Amino acid sequence: MLLLPPLAETLHAAAALIAAVIAGRNFDAVLARAGLVGPIRAATMDLAYTTLRAFGRGDFLLGQLLGRPLKDASARGLLLVALARLEARPDDGHTTVDQAVTAATRIARGQYKGLVNGVLRNFLRRRAELLAQADAEPLARWQHPAWWIARVKQDHPDHWESILAAGNSHPPLCLRVNRRRTTGADFLNQLAAGGIAARLLDDSAILVEKPLPVERLPGFASGLCSVQDHGAQAAAALLDARDGMRVLDACAAPGGKAAHLLERADAELTALDADVARAARITSTLERLGLSATVRVGDARTPDAWWDGRPFDRILADVPCSASGVVRRHPDAKWLRRETDIASFAATQREIVDALWRTLAPGGKMVYATCSVFHEENARQVESFLGRHADARQPPATRDAQLQLLPDAEHDGFYYALLQKA
């Protein structure tokens, strides 16, 4: 196989990932099979994520430049990643074009080299004109599917622009300090000693200014900290588990929220997930942090298959959802999701919370949680639940009985509702 220079290799590898997503495949699954390691993996992921976040814009620009659809998915992927890099790094334009043409030698025996060269150079010549056209086209400007834009506008009329803009941004890196082993202030000092700029958001949450590999975090391997979005950290505080309580974390993989609960209280915790491989990740997470729980494989919708009949004092129902609040971390979701998927998620969520409710002790509390910004999965779901269960209420004195966090520079988008059994 022809060896490519580093940038051309990155463009080629990223193009293959984009082509797979266009074909309907999950980005993480394709990346896992790609076998990329070291610097080329990091560079490829960065470029592929940038391309996916801006896919609506890149696809629009490509349509203007080509005039007719390009059937070869690999060549289309290469043009999309090259256009994304040209927008992100305009001063490096000629290098990007040159290396994209080199990368094209690996596609269909090089038959698209001329096309790649011509399309990208045409973009450089018409850059201002084309970008102005893109800014006037809603899908290209907001870089989300039309149905997604319409739903966010409807659900959040005062914040829809900032939500969509956040969905196109690079996500923040937030750490959760393992309070059983250190404090936020002490760990912040360790980061500073290692030349890592960061700031405290609360007593155990630290926002790192520039993302970096976890291997560079002091004490990560020994369990001093975990990577967890600040918005995700709200779940443990809201659930308010105490020492000695029986606690269930349903849909628990990869174990971040379960670990946070155990860092805050000596609880008898059961961590449940329906997938064997994902359940193994819970065990790995807890072992790294020096924590223990009962990890079970089972479907939250069918408690009789895994529940011992002893009621739980606290339940975290972190249900599957559209992930519309964390889409900047999973930008392929914007383009793989369909509007009909939202109703399907809502149906699954309803089945889960109805099934889990009977495992909750009288007086016990459940936190319903999603990483969504869509009302159909959030407030409407809770309203419907309260209508079906006469023994369910929302504690009136609790400020965060319902909490919708919208994505911003410090956290992703999450929804929480606190429910108590009479």
The value of Rg in angstroms is 23 Å
Count of domain modules: 3
Mean pLDDT comes to 95
- Name the structural class: alpha/beta
The helix content is: 40-55%
For the largest beta-sheet, the strand count, sense and barrel status come to: 8 strands, mixed
CATH topology of the largest domain, by name, is Rossmann fold
Give the amount of beta strand, in percent: 5-15%
User: Which superfamily, in CATH terms, is the homologous superfamily of the largest domain?
Assistant: Vaccinia Virus protein VP39
Compressed to H and E, one letter per element, the order equals: HHHHHHHHHHHEHEEEHEHEHEEHHEHEEE
Give an overview in words.
- The chain has 422 residues and is α/β, with parallel strands linked by helices.
- The chain has three domains: 136 residues, N-utilizing Substance Protein B Homolog, Chain A (Orthogonal Bundle); 55 residues, Alpha-Beta Plaits (2-Layer Sandwich), CATH 3.30.70.1170; 188 residues, Vaccinia Virus protein VP39 (Rossmann fold).
- 47% of the residues lie in helices and 15% in strands.
- Strands 5, 6, 7, 8, 9, 10, 11 and 12 form an eight-stranded mixed β-sheet that branches.
- A hairpin with an 8-residue loop joins β11 and β12.
- α3 crosses α5 and α10 packs across α11.
- The radius of gyration is 23 Å and the shape is globular.
- The model has no long low-confidence stretch (mean pLDDT 95).
